[in-house]
Structures are given as C-alpha cells and as structure tokens.
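FORM 7B - TANDEM STRUCTURE REPORT

SECTION 1: FIRST PROTEIN
SEQUENCE AND TOKENS:
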Amino acid sequence: MFLKIENLSCHYGVIQALHNVSIEIEKKGIYAIIGANGAGKSSLISNSQMKRGGDKMLSKIVSNITPSATCELEGTVADLRHKGVDIIGMNAGEPDFQTPENIQRACEAAMAEGKTKYVNVPGIIEVREAIAKKLRRDNGVHYEPDQICVSTGAKQALNNAVLAVTNPGDEVIIPIPGWVSYVEIVKLVGGVPVCVECRPDYQLDLEKIEKAITPRTAAILINTPNNPTGAVYSRKSLEKLAELAAEHDFYIISDEVYEKLIYGDTKHECVASFSETAYEHTILINGMSKAYCMTGWRIGYTAAPKEIAQGINAIQGHTTSNSTTFVQWAAVEALENNDETIKAMVKEFSKRKDYAYGRLVRMEGIKCNNVDGAFYLLPDISYYFGKRYGEQQIRDSFDFCNYILNEAHVAIVPGAAFYAPNTVRIAYTNSMDKIVEGMNRIETALRKLK
C-alpha cells in the first residue's frame, strides 16, 4: 500500500498510519526526539514543545516539519559523553576514517594561494570538469560542466533538486524505508510526500510505485545504495522505473552518495546512463562525504538536464551562492587521486559488516537482511516489543533504542525515523574493536528483557 502524507507533525505518526500500530499518542504532540537529562539518561521531547518561540508562533512550514532524528541523536550522544558516559556510537552516518592527507594538503594549498574569495555559484570550472570526468568514467554518462552545480553538501543538492521540479501540491514518491530528510525536504517546498513501501528484500516495488503515480506526480526520490537498508537497486528495477518516468513524465531524483560503498559482486547502476530518455528524466545527486570521508567539509553536487541545471543555479544563487571555495579545490584532488584509499576503506567496511551481521542474526529474536552497500544494517527487533527490564518497557523502536542507550551505552537509531517501525539502524562506522564491544553490550542487554 502507499500513503499520501500531508500535515503530519512527525515521522512516528506516519509510521502508525502505515503499519496500524495501536499506541495512544497525543495529537500533534508525538514524542519522537531523543534527548538527555541532567542524570545522563535519555529522554523524549514532545514535538508540540518546539512549536512556539517566545510569544510568537513559528511559521506553518517550520511547524509542519520534524527535526532529524539522526541529528538529534548525535547531540544526545555528545551530551552523554561530555558527562563522562562511555558511549559506543553505532549511529553515525559517516565514515570513521580521517579525510585522506592529500585532500587536506590540497585544501591547505588553496587557502595559502588565496583561493578564499567568491566564485561562480555552480562552482569553479576545475571541480565541475573533474565531476564530469568522474561521471563519464564511473557511471557512463556525459554531462557538460554547465549541467553541474556544486553545493554545500548533498543535502543542499537534494533541496535544490526538489525545489527545482516541485510546485506546491505536487506529489513526490519516496520508497520506504528511506532517509529521514526526504519527506521533510518535500514538505519544505509545499510538496506532498507519497511513501511507497519496498519489497521485503528492500528492492523497489514497481507495482506499488506504478499504482502511486497520479497526474500530480512530479518526481520520485530514490537512494541507491540505500540508507538505511543497505540495498542496491537492481538494473532491472531501475530500467522499469525509467520507463515509468518517461511514460508519466516525472523526474527521477537519484541520490547516489553511497555509490562507492559496494560489497562483493554487486554493481551500482546509474539510471541516467540507460538511455537518452532516462537521462532527460533524471537528476543525479552525489557528494564527497561518504566515499572520501569528507562529511564535515560539506560539498555535494547535482548533474541534470540543462534547463533543470539552470534552475538549480538560480535557486542556489539566492540561498548560499557558491560552496566554500577552498573546499572545492580539495574536492578536485579527491576526485582525481583517491581510488586506492576508497578500495581499502570498502575492504574494511566489508569485514565489519560481515561481523556485525553474523552477531545480530545469532541474537535471540533478531531478524536481519544482509546488505550489498552503504554502511548500515537494519535488523527487525519487534520480537522485543512488550518485554521489559525493571521499569523500562519496550513498546516500539524508540523505547528499544533508549533502553540500549541507557542499559548498554550503545547508540543506535530507531527504525521508525526511516519509516521502518519494527527495526533499528546500526552503522558499522566504528573500529572493529568498538563494534565487537558494542555487540557484546547489546546482546547482554537483550538477555535482561523478559
């Protein structure tokens, strides 16, 4: 089934509607944000508490969006660590490896050479040429530099793309489970998110997607490899999706930021490369954060048909203008000279994935798909719903994560934030020693639940 989401105040309410979970909740005041109190324990904050600033109401747009659960959890973990609590982080959506030294040196050299001024809104020609070269080499798709816009992270690139093709009231299809920000980005531009569940193996369900298409459909927003499922969409499914986009004349906004993080014989497929028609109906999103360990550098990009690219440039010209100039020069170095670094990182992630997956599937009541990409596992933990330890009762994935945080001192993310309410997201973006210890702590905590 699929669900059109309008004027819902938080992810959790959407999940109840999608899965018929009967939990009594306060209208427009659903508890979904993990925080920390003075005792170092996690707590929950009502969405309704965030709607008023002083004596003035926030705008309807702000009141209609839900803060990012992953970002909020990062703050909670930082607070607990500041209080001296030994937290093992298995929540972070970023590589634990340092940015390669050659990238750092390129940035330092750019600053020393005075490359610190404004540049063209879509980016310096050198980085756009490097991106175009990368797209030809890695993805088999040709873009001119004037079809590329470099932004302050892939998240801004996504916002630019959605705003460029979505009018108020237009619908944007979002396969779920999906990243926490997709629905909110659509809502920010006045669009209507239409969430469509994936198959049990987390591949696209093309039948459900086709049924969800209406005359108001402006786009579908896909992410492959996927956060949080780790699925890599098959060529067959993407070819069918491209056919639907051409038939019904909507855009495929393809977030490919995890494309380098692929395991085994699986291959990443770039939908824009399939045909001229697919190319004309696709907006590519990518960035430097995941593959090049540059999360804090904030640099991403779009590649799009020329008319869309011009619109994106206009949007960015009135928001952030150019992304940080000297970071763009670092990105040139990253794109041209880091293949071996990426291979070594992927090899290490693969070892961690195999270990974490093996531990999880041996824990009582846990069900988990193995994954082909990204750096997340999404185990089903619903076996523990209704169980308790002392005063702590597990009613949903938020309770489960709070319990694991408080009892095991391991940070993981509620699956409800990704529209997968029976699951939690576990990131293997920590050292192997920490992952081993984290799994030991989780297993010990689970044995206490009765």
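SECTION 2: SECOND PROTEIN
SEQUENCE AND TOKENS:
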Amino acid sequence: MRRASLHLMSRKSRIPSSINKGCSTSSKPGTTGPHWERPRVMIIRSPLMNEYIYTAKDQNGEVVKAKVEATSQSDAAKILVGQNLFPIDIRSPEEAGLKVRLQRFIQDVRPVRSKDKVIFTRQMATLIRGGLPLAKTLQLLIDQVDNKKLQEIIEDVSNNVQGGSTLADSLAQHPKVFDTIYISMVEAGERGGNLDETMLRLANQEEKSQKIRSKVRSALTYPTVVFIVLIAVSILMLTMVIPQVANMYHELGEPLPLTTKILQGIANFMTNYWYILIALLAAAVFGLRTYVRTDSGRAKLDRFKLSIPGIKLIIKKVYMARFTRTMSSLINSGVSVLEALDVTSKAINNVHIEEAINEVAERVKSGDPISKPIRNNPIFLPLVGQMIQVGEQTGSVGDGMDKVADYFEAEVDEAMENISTLIEPATMVVLGLLVAFLIGAVLLPIYGLVSSIR
C-alpha cells in the first residue's frame, strides 16, 4: 500500500509545472480531490490578408493585370518584385472600382474630337497603303489612339471585322462618331478596292472642315468674352453702386435723375426677384431649343441663317463649300451621282438646301445632267453650276467640284480674317458706349449732389 502511494507521488512529480499550475483543489463544497482546470492557451493570429488589384510589367516589358493577396500595398509590391514583376499600380478593389467608374465617366463626357478622327483616318490610310491587312491595321491602331472612347470603338470595330463584317458596317454601329458621309465613302472604297485613297480623302476633307469651324469659332471668341465681362461689370454696378447713389440722394432729399431711376428699378428687380429672372431665362432657353428641334422651328432657323444681314453670303459660301467638297469626295471614291446626292442632302445640315439637293436628284433621275438643275436653282451660287458643267464636258465632275470647294474655302478664310479684323474695334466701340452710359448714370448724380451742397 505504501509502495503504491509512493509510485503515485512519483508519477505526479513528473507532471509538467505548466499543467501543475492548472491543477488546484476543488473550491466547490461537497467535492474532494484535485480539480483540473483547462490550461490557458495564447493564440497568435496571422496578419489579415487583403486582396489587391495590380498592374505591372514583366521582364519582357509586357503589361500584366491581376490580383495578389498581401497584408498591405507595400507588402504586395514586395511580393510582385519577388516574382520578377515591376509594379505600376496597386489598388484595393474599392479604389480600383472607383477609378474605373471615374475613367468611364470621363470617357463618356469627353467626346471623340474631329482631330482624333483625322489622326485615326490618316494612320489607317498609311498602314493599309503599306500592305497591312485590315484586321491587323485595326489592332495596331487600338494602342495608337489617345482618346479612350475612340480606342474602345476601334476595338469593337476590329472584333466585328475579324468576325466577318465589312469595315463600313462595323463603323456604322457608331453613328455618333462616324456620320453617313464617312460610312458611304468607306463602303465605296471597299467596293472599289481603293480604301487607302478613300481614307486619305476623308482625312483631308475632315481637316478642311475643321479649319473652317475653327476660323468661325476664333472670330466669335473675342466678342463673346467681352460680352460676358460687360454683363459681369453691369451686374456689379447695378447691385453695388447704384443703390448707394440712390441712398445718398434719399438722405439729402434730392430727386434722382431719370437714368439713375431706370437703373435703380433694374437693380431692385435683380436684387429682389433674381429667381424670377433666372426662371424666365431658363424657360426661354428651353422653349427656344425645343422649338428649334421641331420641323417648323428648324426650317425658320435655317432660313434665318441664309438671310442674316452682312454675313449671309459668307454662310452660303460655307454651305456651298460643304456641298461641293462632300460630293467630290464621294464621286471620286466611286459613289454614283444619285447616291452622292442622297448622302450629301442628309449631311448638309440645312433643310432648305437639303430640299434643293433632293430636287436636283429628281431631275437627274429624269435624265438631266447635274449641272442643269443646279444652275436653275437660286439657292446654289452661280459658280457651282458653271464649274460642274465644265467638269461634265471634260469627264471629271468630281475634280470640278473639288476645285469649287477649294475656291469657296479660300473665300471663307479671307472673309473670316476680315471679320475678325473688324470685330475687335467694333466690340470696343460698343463696350465703350455701354461703359460710358453706366459711368454717366453713376458719376453725374454725384456731381449734381456736390453742386447742390455748394
């Protein structure tokens, strides 16, 4: 019995001290003997792993986009470097999602500019002329374009072409970027096997159209800026200066001059009922835009464009240049005269000239040469019909129209330069008169008060 107890004690003495500390006598009443408690174990957790989206380059310079798990962005960078990747961008899914949404918003807001389309068209013509297949040309152009929206469009066009669609049909799926003229010329170029020459004509035509638009825009920029500054100065004087002058007269019991009374009434209305003014202005703009989109509204606006005093001849030359340039590009690309007239009528952007072109097409269907109805219609300038008639006699209608377009574009350029020269001094004269009126309405009452005090 004693040996058994000694043996038990010896076994107990070999229990590790860490477990012995967990062993204690029971503190519960009515229990005897040792009570074993579970040993406390310290759990060491590993750092929380996060998922990151990265963009990196491998040793061959190829761009790699994928995901990696790491504790932080710096840890993710170390992992990528350990895999022989050179990190370009590392973001969490939340940051990457926000960045993608922002990029898409900017792409949707930022339109495809005419300059971007010209560069794309000219590069495409160069690559096709160099002997590259169309599918390979489109794939190369995807990375050459800076505009992201145009890049996505080219990628979609490339996929459609590889799927068996024609280039014209693929481009026609994006009408906001490629208009009817562009599609028709590409289609004619594909049929005639001279797509490279067609693309060069398209690039040249777009460049010349862009040049005319920039001339008109630059001529209107200076007076627009001056007009905005004038409005800002007028509002400042009406809301800040005129009320103080009126208070001075009121305190001295002197009657206000007529001009100051008129300006004071305008100032009071703008100060107290500015929201009505804004509402009326917004309603007027909205109503005008809505009316212009109707058939009758558009017809009246287009008629007004052709009858603006002083510049109606310039506007008509712009339309004639657009008509002859589009017709020459289509005819030289292999499009028939009737089809070219139909496409041009839809792209001329004036309902009255569109009706005149449709009348010309009807006469051509009846067997008349194209020059005859154009010469008999007063909406076309005389030179257009005369040059087309010369082209019919020499068998080069397209070249004749091209020369007419060059002539009218040169005329428009010269007219725009003359207008720009005249607009600046005319704007300064108008600005000086308005400022003189406002200053007179403010300073003359003050001089009158000083004279009455003396």
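SECTION 3: OBSERVATIONS ON SECOND PROTEIN
The first helix runs from residue 2 to 13.
The chain has 19 helices and five strands.

SECTION 4: SIGNATURE
Preparer initials: ____
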